[in-house]
Amino acid sequence: MLHRYDFSCSDAAVLNVLRRGKPPYAMAPKQIAERLALTSGALTPRIDRLEEAGLIRRLPVLTDRRRTRGPAHRRRTITNG
Predict the structure, then answer these.
(1) How far apart are CA 69 and CA 62, in angstroms?
(2) 10 Å Cβ neighbour count for 10?
(3) N or C: which end of the chain has fewer CB within 10 A?
């Protein structure tokens, strides 16, 4: 079924980590990487694919314009905190 949406089990794992979070479903990429035992370099392409598919979005960090908060399923948010 995942091939129908053109993403992998590892992409689905990122969404699953977000889904298991508490509202507002915000999580830093570092936290996601730790929960999935991934490096930031391995996580970034997954986040990019999910963002391109419109399943997640990155949010700005209001106190630091250099950073963004991580990806999020439409209802799930990832922060760079």
Answers:
(1) 9
(2) 15
(3) N
Please, which residues have CB within 8 angstroms of residue 78's CB and are 6 or more apart in sequence? 18, 26, 27, 28, 29, 32, 47, 56, 58, 59, 69, 70, 71, 72
Pairing of the two strands 59-60 and 68-69: antiparallel
pLDDT value of residue 19: 86
| pTM for the full predicted model | 0.72
DSSP 4: G
The structural domains of the chain, with segments of one domain joined by +, span 24-81
Query: Tens digit of pLDDT for each residue in 2-40?
Result: 566 677 888 899 999 988 877 777 788 888 999 999 998
Torsion sign across C-alpha atoms 68, 70, 71, 76: negative
d(CA 79, CA 29): 7
